[in-house]
Fold these 4 entries.
Entry 1:
Amino acid sequence: MDFAANLTLSALGQQILVGLSRTTILFIVASGLSLVLGVLRIPNLAHGSLYMIGAFVTYSVAMALGGGAFGFWLALIVAPVLVAAVSFAVERGIFRHLYDREHLMLLLFTFSLTLVFNDMVKLIWGADYRSLSPPEVLKGFVTIFGLPFPRYNLFLLMLGPVVALGLWWLTNRTKIGKIARAAAVDREMVGAVGINVSRVFSSVFVIGCFLAGLGGALVAPTQNITQGMDHAIIIETFLIIIVGGLGNIWGALLGALIFGLTDSVGILICPQFAIVFPYAAVVTVLLVRPKGLLKSTW
Amino acid sequence: MLQVTALQKSFDGFMAVSDAHLHAAQGEITAVIGPNGAGKTTLFHLITGQITPDRGSIRFKDKDIVSLPPYAICRLGISRSYQVVNVFDRLDVFENVRVAVLSRQRRSFNLFANARRMAVKETREILQTVGLGDKAGRISGTLSHGDRKVLEIAVALGNRPELLILDEPTAGMSPEETEIVLQLMRRLRSEMGITLVFCEHDMEMVFTLADQIMVMQHGRTLIQDRPDAVRNHPEVRAAYLGDDEC
Amino acid sequence: MTQSRFQALVIPAVLLLALAFLPQFGTRFYIYLVSLILIQGLLATSLNLLLGFGGMYQFHHAVFYGTGAYATALVLTKTGSPAWVAFAAAPLAGGILSLLIGVVCVRLSKLYFGMLQISLGSLVWTIVYRWYNFTGGDDGIHGIPVPDAISSGVGAYYFTLAVTVVSLFILYRIIRSPFGMTFQAVRDNPVRCEAIGVNVRVHQLIGMVIAGAFAGIAGSLFVTVEGSVFPELMFWTLSLEILIMCLLGGWFTFFGPMLGAAVIVSLQTFVGIYTEYWTMVLGIVLMMLILLLPQGVLGFFMERWIKISRSEEN
């Protein structure tokens, strides 16, 4: 094999790894969205805003503590928790009263919410973009396939399975997960056997939004933290859960893999139109399987 | 006119219709009876193309209609009403029927004419026939249950069918309303020459109205014959009618 | 009956007269604002043909608007064709794209229709967003040579007004036509429609092509008024904004979306003058409206009006 072929092969291997680390973030955010959509039937467009808030809070907490490693790790916990707290207030204050509304109305309502959230971000953090560097241990590169690979992406790669396992445990092994899965299929039934559905819904909403915040926190060191980062993520994650099957967490994983991998491999094939690849992949899948790859709870 | 042979349909392993046979002669009224879950409504869905059979044949006027889409079957001359009222809730009564008439006249692709001036005479006649003439302007969602059931039939008549399939046309109606529908069905046959197939739980109505009765049980056709023959069929007596009812 | 007919004729006539004389007493700012309202109103009305009268979840309608705008812009900048070709290209491009997207979407049920539609629309957006040497990519195309007669603020306004009025008239006729009536029946009950001999999918496809073509026309009007195009014209956020216009104005009424467009565009503009944070105000107003008036502003008043006239009857 000549040198050029070797290079492309290792470049491909590396791009796949980059794609997989991107998949981690997409999966975290998309699984939260899918959880809320599947159980509460709310197409929550504000999910992207919560992701953005998560990123900004991570920046602020890390900076407030001097920008060091401790600040970053603390921010990684504080940001999702804060986002979860905000979402708890929103759920108790507003969404609780809207569960029986038409989906279209809910969609528009959450869209209005994004307008409010986005201006709140502008109000607090201003219109400038921010950037955050990862802590010392995760800075720099390791060599994989003979090419430098960012340590932080390696960290994301290892985190992905942990989060997936945690979600599996939550939905299959905990009481609230089991009830939530049952409620996703038949809400009246669960209510009829005397379970407090309202509390389950509230918990699921908060967990889903926590995941949005976590995704935002994790993405913070990898890109500019900016107004408008919510717009990109929300359409991407929506397509991911559509392709995976609405409300199905493993569908979200599958969709995130498709999206992340086609995106990063697309950069090798045709950098200019790299962004087109994941969208084209989604459309291709939907043309064959309009209801998504895995079983939808809808 | 209609000839259904050895029809079969299963959903996820559940055999809804396993071996259905039905023939309806021109100008006759044929009733389909059987207990709940015998597969009567599924049979009607199969005939009108809403679902496709796994096996068997359906011939209408000597033409094979299996696997035709519902709209094509309707255009051949088969109309139906539904057991659960299934009309256009936000349109008024007149418009409900007019849509069917326009469809039959193949004018539904006309983009620029004023629909308010079209199909007026025919629509009015149909509403007169079924006795909804004075309620033409009401939004159909606001009608009483009985009127909505009648509107069901009126919409089906808009297609000027040769064969009309009625799925429990009097379900949930008062005795007076039932009598009106009964008279209407007689008139549809005698005045308009429409062939009728219907299913019904009201045995009195079935035996006074039908020329032929087909009995279904567990998705199978037990027998199809004249009412008196059905009444005296031992298996039917045992399985369905119960001796005391005759 | 005669009174409501009178109202139905007089109100639009007065409004039209006011709009026709607007440039005589309005400032440039108002002329521009009303132009925008007319364009977005036409766009929302074309969406509502599908949403309110066809019961179809067209989630990504802005794609056809953007496509129309780009079609006009590209013909004007890249070819030497006469201007009418550029304006004819808009509905043509919008209609053809609608046909392509529609063919694969109409076989699906309501929700899945909407989801495939938004995916396809987003795909179109990504291509436009990145195709620098054809569409100008994320920069868009600026300084488009609009014909002199309609390039000034007032000229563009009259052109927009005329095209919008004619388009609305045609759309109104379509809704009142046998096709429109059948389309509403499809909205209420597609299964029954099939059973009365209506080929539902073909009707939905025709509806989509019509809506796409008129969205394209609205796009070409945008080029006339702004002289530029950019990918945001077909971004999903705009699709949601026009969806809001329909629901806000009342989606079972014909003029509701136009009213919704007037409310939203005015809110954007006037609140934008006072505060940088106008989207927050818009968001809060929208939330209140959704909470308090689920059937839309015009729908709300229509319902009250019907109730009043009913009680007078009795």
Entry 2:
Amino acid sequence: MISINEIIETNRMVQSQHLDVRTITMGISLLDCIGNTVEETAEAVYKKVKEKAGKLVATGEDIACETGIPIVNKRVSVTPISLITAKTGGAVKLAETLDKVAKEIGVDFIGGYTALVHKGMTDYEKEFIMSIPEALSKTDRVCSSVNIGSTQAGINMDAVRLMGKVIKDTAYLTADKGSIGCAKLVVFANAVEDNPFMAGAFHGVGEKDVVINVGVSGPGVVKAALEQVDGDLTEVAETIKKIAYKITRVGQFVAEEASRRLNANFGIVDLSLAPTPVKGDSVARILEEIGLECAGGYGTTACLALLNDAVKKGGIMATSHVGGLSGAFIPVSEDEGMINAVEKGILRAEKLEAMTAICSVGLDMIAVPGDTTAEVLSAMIADEAAIGVSNNKTTAVRVIPVYGKTEGRVDFGGLLGTAPIMKINTVSPAKFINRGGRIPAPVWAHKN
Amino acid sequence: MKAIVSVLGEDKKGIIAKVSTALYDMDINVEDISQTIMQRYFTMIMLVNLEDSKLKFSQISENLSALGRETGVDIRIQSEAIFDSMHRI
């Protein structure tokens, strides 16, 4: 029988250290829903999502009740809508259908208003990308992502230029809610097809029909374990590995159970440490526990590299399939310690960029002044994409130019949290951005 | 299905009796018990079998929580499998 100490350890992780399963995300292929008209497609999409994910929320709640481990979010990701509507157009109508069915089945987000244009855009994909602001302003739960670069293809700078404008337009069209549309829009390089986390989740075309992907969490558990460690950094890394193993086992168990009960395929467990705005659930505070006065100072990148690596090493053995983004997340607005570091002026945009070179996923949930130009936003995307493409990893930009505001805070509510508006470098990159074209793939992409 | 009932709280008379009676009333068999006092707190772990019980897991959980509130201790029931998964390779 399991020992008393083991049971108490597990329950303490849940009750005082915020251990939870962050999300069960059901990926659903919509390739068999494409009709002759967008109305036909929408009807088929509605039926399929409702049929496959109708019991997702109830199943998640049952598993949470039986295990005593909270399952915070239940979500759905779908095949990139740019592919599903390529024949008929009418993508915004499909976004409204997705929003409607998401509300009916009770999931908090549905991801996949997505285009994959890392090498080039078709005329329709360009039209689709330009529809993103409207789609995000007319829906509440739909999430959008665009992949603009990959290690194999390089960086599609025409798409990068376009995305600067799309982010600005989204901020404007959702200005009444703090430009919240931008919090549901991610620009990726090296996007993955099985990411369970929003806003960047979509169901890749290489996936089975219906798949369960699970994202675990637990920054608070890691921090609590490190509070007991006085030893050197090897001991710090070993402690993180052991905790990551246990956290990931929870994710593996939940993923297996959810797949079995929902008659879906087990996809992956994402090993990311995902923070929330709640005190005691912060990645930044782990870095401080390792020994920094405040996240953002020198040493931050090294501590994060240690943390990210140890989480992966501990987690990999604990699950049969690792996937998604799998690394420590550093979203500013969703992490109490990150907000603190930004507001103290210690964590700045440039240090954040350095941190993204060694962890998942990128410049995430960063509010910037509303008057930031589209070219500067595009250049931020280009820099992040360069880091991802050159290091053969996923990077992303989810930045919110808060319309009508240049300083202060913006509150998005819930898990999206509160973001202090960060000062950024505004020197013009306009000539570079307006050149367009494609940045060639790095030399080490050519491995064949 | 096998589950772990854990009872934590200030030590007082009759805790084991009350929890055992509640489980008996729900047709739940107790297969193993271990109990200790940790830092002044009464801590009891029971391995139970839910096979014969007609109640749903959520109902059993709710009944035990209610008993915990009445007696001033924390009572929870969780699937044994989650602990096995987390603590055994």
Entry 3:
Amino acid sequence: MNNIYDVIVVGGGHAGCEAASACALKNHPTLLITSNLKNIADMPCNPHIGGSAKGIVVREIDALGGIMGKIADKTHLQIKMLNVAKGPAVQALRAQGDKIAYPREMLKYLQSLKNLTIQEGMVEDLIVEDATVKGVILADGTKIYSKIVILTTGTYLKSDILVGNTRTRKGPHGEEPSNHLSDRLKDYGFQIIRLKTGTPQRIERSSIDFSKTKLELGDDTFHTFSFDLNPCYRLEDQVPCYLTYTTAATHQIIRDNLNKSSMYGALDDIKGIGPRYCPSVEDKVVRFADKERHQLFLEPESREYDDIYLQGFSTSMPPEIQEQMVHSLPGLENAKILKYGYAIEYDAIYPTQLTASLETKILHNLFTAGQINGTSGYEEAACQGLMAGINASLKLEDRPPLVLGRNEAYIGVLIDDLITKGIRDPYRLLTSRAEFRLLLRHDNADIRLRKHGYDVGLITEEQITKLHNKLSEISRLKEYMKSTRVKIDGHFQEIFQANNLSLPTTSLSLEQLIKRPEINFKIINQIIEIPFTSDIQEQVEIDLKYEGYIAKAIKEAEKLTKLEKKQIPADINYDLITNLASEARQKLKEVRPTTIAQAIRISGVNPSDIAILSVYLKKEYNQNDN
Amino acid sequence: MEDTICAISTSMGIGAISIIRVSGPDAVNIVNQIFKSSHDLTKVASHTIHYGYIVDGSTSVDEVLVSVMLAPKTFTTEDTVEINCHGGIAPTNKVLELLLSHGCRLADRGEFTKRAFLNGRIDLLEAEAVMDMINAQTDSQRELAMNQITGRVSNLINDLREDLISIISNINVNIDYPEYDDVTVVTNDILLPKVQAFKTKIAHILAESRNGQIIKEGIKTSIIGRPNVGKSSLLNALLDEEKAIVTDIAGTTRDIVEGEISLNGIPLHIIDTAGIRQTEDKVESIGVEKSLKTLANSDLVLLLLNNNEPLSREDEELFKQVSQKNYLVVINKCDLPNKLDISSLSIDPKRLIRMSISQGTGLDDLKNKIIELFNLGSIATADPTYLSNARCIGILENCLHKMEEIEEAIKNNQPIDMLELDIRLVWEDLGRINGTTYEEELLDEMFSRFCLGK
């Protein structure tokens, strides 16, 4: 039994990489088991990283000491800021990843970690004693022991590839999935659900006539996900994407052949529930019949090969129909399909069976993260992997878990949603899921989270000092803005006229000036050069300009914090609360919320149920506390 | 297990009958133990009435009718028994004592309604309405409360929330799918008319609701004026009874006297205040202080002047105070020679009434002016589906205020996603009206206001 690790991570996808990295960086001997080294940090679906809300998650991962942002910065094909025309709270980065370079860089990084061992193998069972996990059992019967196991198996639990009327037990690249692990989890008492997701065709670049499509370039200014890296790409080297649309002919082909799609009757044994926000093109045509066309993005997958990913065209039609469909698209009349679209069905754990630290309620020392918890998306997976890794390590160190609040991070929103509300379809993080999005911005992820990263031991002295310097620069600039007045002189008037702005009547402070909706630092710098770096200016501009809104958000967040202080005892017996509606009782028993704040968020639990619960708690638990 | 609670549900004192209500799992059992009749209450069908006697051992206490209503189709959704006994304090109290000694607990203030709410039988608005219903004294009040109980007002609020949700969801789709042009992008230009329309809607409901509040709470009217101009006489004339002490010694009314009349079915609460003048008398000066406070809380102020005396400095001072309020100037003693010159006061002629209380002239004029001023003629016929209590109106006023801020922010070119944050707050606030949004403090406050028994 010399193979005792502190942590075994099962699965080398985006969740597994973060989990393994976090544990290893914290000096816990860690074993990462992957079915195939080639699949480390694989991107089997779309090639981009980030996007609305997700881009902010990548920043949060970086702030906490995760790695996704840094690898993406080093390898992307293009990067842009989304929602620039809207307010600062909803801006997010989106990069076009490189499906070869990203996994290669990740593997190189993981192999450089001295406490991490990477091994190929297929895990088919867990070693369990007294409802506590002690290690894993491989397909060949080998037992490997560890103090903690983190399952990050992605779509590989009993995955089936669906194309037309065929169902094949395979992973995304045609490899063997794990056939028994989800059954074993069921035996241990887990509720297992079946989900599905789909992916579109890959097209050979040289067969596309790009003149019929619209060019989509990266930004002409530099961006990085990471707070620690300087941009390491050249603006002009960014690879473009292209935009095209479905046509009336496409829609006709789909309607004529609907019964041949796996999802529309060709297969009658589909149990998996697909993501609502990422419908197949069949779904789009059927559900939005009045839409004349749908957007499709042609996205390069790598600098190192020629496949173009046909974003927005995911389908489970048989290959011959997919040929017709693709050829009906402008620019793709003669396109050569390198890989057909398919749907994949897989097993997942119903996530209300997890605690906020991502440890399961059923088996001690077992953590799960990523698609196994019912989410979709690389970023959603990565951030859960990081949190599972952090909390596994904290548990090994006898320290309390790190649980991020909904008012603190998108990661907090995601995990709370999963464990409180459960899921119906694969969960994608959306800006609209965050009630405090104004506090959870792209630009302030480091201010929000670096301190946590430092406390858990993933952020270095040097990194935290950098943050402290930034914070003091911010307050210095605010002071400067308050104390510096500008006169309405000729120079001032010239700039205002050039920018088509109405002139103020009296001299005013820079603070008053920046608070005007139409003024920004770009204009102020023309009037008077501000002796601070642009990222400090950005922070101060947001803080001052949206002061009122931010103050309101903080006030709302405080209401939540107050309700979060109202703890629900772990041993509460919901059967003793006579007046609860039966649906509410069942949901409360299932989720077992730890606070009133969490209980309010459970769907099916109404305000009157919360009132009853509060009255009961007051009566039964706080009787003597005044 | 919940307690079984009981309380006297009718107002105590004189009355042909009083009703004692018992609710909870043991309701039927407990009443059965003190009820003598040919029927065993534990075996009777739900929603039936039974004749018999309430007994204390072998002594009959009262001849009664007992209604048995079994869960869940009752107000509290629990088993409920109502005992109709003969009015009078002694027998009613005796029955209550018997119930208590057989295992019932005396209900807390508002506990029946609280149970109905907690058991999901009624929503928050309805719970509030139940209290209004109990306190209703006019038909308009009852109708208003009934509308709230049947959920019509809740639906109104839900419709408003639906309006906002469609705006909110569209903006959110724009934020979450910035690269797709499939959905209309909501810009400030598109948003502005929607916000304005919504604002108008709220303002309309609010205006109607204030009427509702008038129906329910009446018009707080205070009478002010220098000592001995006839304030108490006016009050008495309106009330048609000798409530306030009327003498011709200035300063007789040392406290605030209240009375109530009904004007077109709307209650008018009239308050006679101590004459306001500079005074050395301690008792009287407390009265004067109170009068000024009353003035501040009034919906309508009647300023009384004396036709038979020249305008004094104090009159001018008083007019200055009331002119900030909804006022009427009443010139009394018009039967006596005119010595009053009001040309220095800029009185709106529509707000001026001449009368002689002692001769009984001008009283109808005054009433008609009040009806006109508060639009009381049309209120009674208006659709009563509106909010009618101060809490709800307060929230709605706050929503209107926020919509005004949003409108302003749109004009100031604030980013759309900032605007959405405020729209969402309005949506949540609306939910607080009918209890869709959870608010803890509210429950405690509400239930402490409910009268015992219902």
Entry 4:
Amino acid sequence: MDRIYLDYAATTPTDPAVIEAMRPYFFDKFGNPSSIHFFGQEAKKAMEDARSKVAAFLGAKEEEIVFTSGGTESDNSVLFGTVWAGASKGNHIITTAIEHHAILEPAKFLEKSGYKVTYIKPDQHGIVSPDDIAGAITDKTVLISVMHANNEIGAIQPIKEIGRIARDKGISFHTDAVQTVGHIPVNVDELNVDLLSLSAHKFYGPKGIGCLYVRKGTRIQPYLRGGGQERHRRASTENIPGIVGLGKAIELCAKNMAKESKEQSHLRDKLIKEIPKKIDRVYLNGHPTLRLPNNVNFSVEYIEGESMLLNLDMLGIAASTGSACTSGDLEPSHVLLSIGRPHELCHGSLRITLGRFTKGSEINRFLEVFPKIVSKLRAMSPLYDEKKQ
Amino acid sequence: MNKKVLVGMSGGVDSSVAALLLKDAGYDVVGVTMCFNIASGARNRPSCCGIEGIEDAKKVAHQIGIPHYVLNFGKNLEETVILDFINEYISGRTPNPCVRCNQYLKFGALLKKAKALGCGRVATGHFARVEKNGRAFLLKKGVDSKKDQSYFLCEVEARHLARILFPVGDMTKEEVRDIAQKRGLYVANKQASQEICFIPDNDYRAFLKSRLNKAYFKKGAIVDTKGNVLGHHQGIFNFTLGQREGLGISAPHPLYVIGLSQKYNRVVVGPKEDVFSDSLIAREPNFFVRGSIKKSTLVYAKIRYNHKVAKAKATLLSKGILKVDFAQPQAAITPGQFVVLYKGDTVLCGAKII
């Protein structure tokens, strides 16, 4: 059976060129970059080369890049690191109802510890209004965190406008750009952000490596303390092969991103156009145009997303109901709920995310198979029978 | 029917071996672990439903080379089994959630899910057998009499039997463990869990207290059969028939719970001989063998899982009411539990004792 991968937002395959770039750093050049000797210097150079590539992609300075283990660590570092640094100034954080759990869970934890958190709801297309953010600011606000694009429905947020508001008020502004880096242009100055999270495995780099961009002068305490790595901002021996892989992956994206996103958005639009033609009562989740070039998310009425997903899986097609982190718990997606989808439609969602290696023929295969699965499942659904009568 | 079968895998030895045997027999096997959102705060979490069970089932599925999915039935559990559990206790009965789980979840919601996944059949690791007899299917005891679980299947709808497989039903527990060990299954030496999966720390009273409105903690009288008040209780759900401990009464002879009245919020106690009874009434029998009970039909009856079957005569009084008269009086015939009637190894019907 041919396997078709349509879940690039969960993770991407590591590009063979990235693997090649990483290879020497496991054995030949295995040194610890903090070591004084030749082995250390060699590793240190590789790390700084990678840092310069990441900085170039983001339009940042090299010293503003802190390597981390990935998106979750970067997001956690921002929330905890900011409140620790700003403890005397205030105790209020503004974020959104559609953030990744890597933001929402530490935020909830901080609430339990006495901090106040405001969760701004998006509109029906999943877009957060800068005015709503501005309206929530108090003199106690120490951090605003809004994701660049949503991982489930692909809605791209008005980061630049929100960033301007935060800067006017002198409040640190973070964006979780895990879903956008490598897929659309991300420039920290244009976006007016002080802090930004990214993760390599979302753009053909290896898992377990990412970074936090920290604008010079931003008040933040380290999350991991120990050795003095990363200019005392993140202790732990650096993951050199991972860092080299991140550098290579971001370099490849810088080169190919425009072309790839054009190809992917073409296939995305084909799916968005064709699915409603083949299946009745399906609803696109997210914004029709302000969305990631590779994201399609539909709610299919009368059936469960999980059943669609498993049927696709058994035919060799990998998709998702929402975020990979939450599949297995049947709580309806917090993202779909917050854009006002009723419970039933939240359960009937399917996310298809495309990537570098997606072929047109794979999309055709999906379009051929998927309507059959839906009609089979609907034939078993008592709700659908009622509707027909 | 197609050769695609969904195996409910708890992560225990029995269902793991069931999956293995089906795979060996050439079935197209899909492993599924039911997940119930069990509160993770509980200590001593039972191994069948917690994260551990899921991880073990996944490891076994990988070992034997079958796909494995975790499907969440937390809402179903809440709306059927747990709701029934609470309602029974506050009505002065002692529920059997395992019977309800088989009825509503494993051979209800899961069976439906199997259909949606294109699986013609559902298999589990129960020690019981389904046998084809002409056009009908019979539910029979497992071959291992010590492990027989047919009692727990007594409310499964008979029409579903055609779609159910019990691959370990004709083996002994030792044989099952032996296969698991010989084939190197990851869970070969895992111990079975006896607890109710949704009850933290095996403390059902604490669970009920966490779920019930204060109105149910009404203080009430503990009385003898003559109506003399001997003491007080804090809610009838704390008691079950035949219970001796926790009454808080000092009496010259040991006293046992012999009745619970929701209406009067009373616990009735009496001496040991009053715990025994020679007949019972049960409601809405679920028949596996239609027409098998008429008037004074000779059967063997089991009134709780750990009960040794007893000789009895069963009569279908009217549609929906079953009377069972025992040859010898039986201890603690408990409303809320099920009576299961057997002819030899064959389950004739099951019904809830009232």
